[in-house]
Amino acid sequence: MEAPKPVLGQVHDYPGCLIVVEGTDGSGKSTQLQLLQNWLELEGFGTCFTEWNSSRLVSQVIKKGKKSGRLTPTTFCLLHATDFADRQEGIIRPALQAGMVVLADRYMYTALARDVARGADRDWVRNTYTFALIPDAAFYFRVDVETSLLRISATRAPKFYEAGMDLGLADDVYQSYRIFQSRVIEEYDSMVDELGLRVIDGTRPIHDQQSEFRAQVRDVVAARFGPEVISEMRA
Amino acid sequence: MAATLRTNEYPGKLVVMEGLEGAGKTTQLTLLGTWLEAEGYAVNYMKRRTSQLVSQAIADAKAKKTLTPVTYSLIHAADFADSLENEVIPALKAGFIVLADRYIFTSFARDVVRGNDRQWVEKLYSFAIRPDALFYLSVPIDVSFRRTAPSRIQEFYDSGLDTGLHPDPAECFRLFHSRILHEFQDHILREYDFQALDGTQPIHTVQREFRAKVSQLLG
Fold first, then answer.
1. What is the ipTM of this complex?
2. Distance from CA of B121 to the nearest CA of A (A)
3. What is the pLDDT, as a whole number, of residue A106?
4. Is B135 helix (H, G, I), strand (E, B) or coil?
């Protein structure tokens, strides 16, 4: 007998549909999600966009905590979980109840990858997020660490926490970014099978990725809204 | 099942006092602290919602009534973690006696009464340090109610009005805190190594017993 797939989170049966994108900084996930949102709206779907660390409740606290360097791996995890929970109750759940397609730029998988890469206990982090709604689909835009670094350094230097400088891995911020984000990528990769992330190769041309992304999302929304939406949608 | 907590491996000691609103926890801890300092010990206090990191955010959210059971739990856990890691642990490392006015057990009780899963809450706090001594200052619900300031009873979350148990703040306070008391009696006091103090006794009587028990800890 095949072992049941491990589930992390709460199954939802709202009329709406929850689609999330994941990946390291510079993976192109935000670009892809924006293109997807435009397409869904052209197709007549109501959409609702929500991004990581944007809650009214604690996003400013997190920003200040990052600036002051006061955050520890524990408070880093708990505050992001608070931010996530606040958006789930205040934005995501109501939008799903209203029948919208909710598009989340980063979701709990970001926390599961980063917090564990930061040294928090894997079981503890996973327990913390058991209140999360299981998305209809989670897409992981995969790039290697050098691509990620190359893309973000085109406009800026890696930031303190995204480079994992709080862990003292290296004095040089670029070197620290390589080490820390490699760990994050490792964590993401380990979740692909375990938690059912759908991998899209983030090094391919933007247009090709978007075609693949739309093709998969078409099936996801069809599963939620009924098969008839497929034929109505343009390719 | 009781949560597994980290053992205190530092030279300092962690003494925790739990009990209902109005039980006399703060009074007893302050008297104990004064005495300990007179005895030559360095003392530090831990209180809920005093962290540099999030106490202001909690106050704002409580005023705006925007907390749900899950965010209430998580933001208090963040507050606790910030105090623990940035204040309590450094004090324990430096050999202080840390007197905690409420600890994770208050969160266990409140969060569960608010509808969160007991095991989820206990695991959430598994990063906490196990106290060296754990006291429960016991009073009946009527005594708690009488001793609690009316302004506090009117407070939305402190009275548990967010749980919708009763529309009247005073009635809701009674119901909410009775449930908290049951959570202590039925689970927490049985699963963790508490020493009981009788909060209905005169203040000085309780204090003498408290000092005697803490003396044993200090050897």
1. 0.91
2. 9
3. 98
4. strand
